[in-house]
Design a protein that fits this description.
This protein is an alpha/beta fold. About 30% of the residues lie in helices and about 15% in strands. The protein contains seven helices and nine strands. A six-stranded parallel beta sheet has the order 3-2-1-7-8-9, sandwiched between helices. Helix 1 packs across helix 7 and helix 5 runs parallel beside helix 6.
Length: about 230
């Protein structure tokens, strides 16, 4: 516990000193909201590979947890430059993150986009035509093999190049091109912090490593930050 508190104190100090903080989240940040991750000990793909059933996820009932709220508080404190997420669960927007500060690389189950003009809007039951151009509305969620949204991907690369502190929260960092962002940040000279229950390919490059849940780490770091 003493070691954890020391690492949290270091993280808080680095956040305070950071001029351009980028946070990168994966499914692990949402497990405390009742959603399963993919590659954790009881993750969806872990269960599938073991021949076990993969339970239905009720994304609509999920609410932001302390990890999501801590990132939103970093925004309120003026410390969050940009947030990159692999998640489709809409919890970052529910927590109050400014859409202009968020790239959702794999889409959002609560959003649809127009195939004609690329306008995005909240999903409305039965709504199939774009209110701007009349084009066909489709899900923003990116399936395997599909191209990631161009603007979100471009913004992610740009902000990763500009950051001096890059915090990974709840991602195993094995799904590309999303998982390329820590490499870009490292090449730009940023400190890399990883908060994830489970190994990642970037563990050897992390200046600070947490095996604890995001909800154990980020809220405590934000509270410590307020005292600095």
């Amino acid at each position: 516990m003493a070691d954890l508190q020391a690492r949290i104190a270091t993280l808080a100090r680095w956040i305070k000193d950071s001029k351009y903080l980028v946070v990168f989240t994966g499914a692990g940040i949402s497990t405390e909201s009742g959603l399963r991750d993919f590659r954790g000990p009881d993750g969806l793909w872990t269960r599938r590979d073991k021949g076990l059933a993969t339970p239905h996820q009720d994304f609509t009932a999920a609410e932001p947890n302390e990890g999501h709220r801590a990132i939103a508080e970093l925004q309120t404190l003026g410390k969050l430059a940009f947030l990159i997420s692999q998640n489709v669960d809409n919890l970052h927007l529910k927590s109050g993150i400014d859409p202009e500060k968020l790239a959702e690389l794999h889409g959002n189950l609560a959003k649809v986009r127009c195939e004609g003009c690329d306008f995005k809007m909240d999903r409305i039951e039965g709504e199939r035509e774009c209110p701007l151009c009349g084009g066909n509305l489709v899900s923003t969620v990116v399936d395997f093999g599909q191209t990631l949204p161009e603007k979100d991907l471009s913004d992610s690369y740009e902000h990763s190049r500009r950051c001096d502190l890059f915090i990974v929260a709840g991602s195993s960092l094995v799904v590309y091109p999303a998982a390329d962002m820590p490499r870009v940040a490292l090449e730009a000279g940023a400190k890399l912090v990883i908060i994830n229950r489970g190994d990642t390919p970037y563990d050897g490059y992390a200046r600070l490593r947490f095996d604890e849940a995001t909800g154990e780490v980020l809220p405590a770091a934000v509270e410590r930050l307020k005292t600095l």
